[in-house]
Amino acid sequence: MKPIAEIHLHRERLVAEAARQRDVLSEHYAGFEGPANVAARGIDVVSWLRKRPLVVGTIAAVLVAIRPRGAMKLAGRGLIAWRAVRSIRGFLKESGVTW
Fold first, then answer.
1. Using CA atoms, how far apart are residues 48 and 40, in angstroms rounded to an integer?
2. 17 sits in which H/E element
3. How does DSSP classify residue 2?
4. In sequence order, what DSSP letters do the residues of 62-95 get, joined into one string?
5. Domain residues of the chain, as ranges?
6. Residues 63-97, buried b or exposed e (16+ Cβ, 10 A)?
7. CB 60: neighbour CB atoms within 10 A?
8. Given CA atoms 26, 29, 30, 32 in this order, what sign does their dihedral have?
């Protein structure tokens, strides 16, 4: 068996190496923090809207009343985005990735 002092020294080295690896990772991915926060905020907004279909319907009705042509453009883009999300979800589901 190894002496306790040797085990403690090995543990200290492992802890130091883990800290160094965390620092390297945080430096490497620091640029992703802003976009990740924006994406998280967008997901929160979509989740909030999914729980309140009346709000979405009201916004859509107001948009159609104020700018019908703009609303049609937005609806077309929304349809394209919805189809893209469905395709990506299907691909991920077939790949075994849960979303």
1. 12
2. helix 4-28
3. -
4. HHHHH-HHHHHHHHHHHHHHHHHHHHHHHHHHHH
5. 1-51, 54-99
6. eeeeeeeebeeeeeeeeeeeeeeeeeeeeeeeeee
7. 14
8. negative
pLDDT 10s per residue in the chain (99 long)?
A: 778 999 999 999 999 999 999 999 988 888 888 888 998 998 899 899 999 999 999 998 998 999 989 889 988 998 999 899 899 988 888 888 766
How long a stretch of residues is the chain? Answer: 99
The dihedral sign for the CA sequence 26, 28, 32, 36: negative
pTM of the model: 0.51
CA 24 to mean position of chain CA atoms: 22
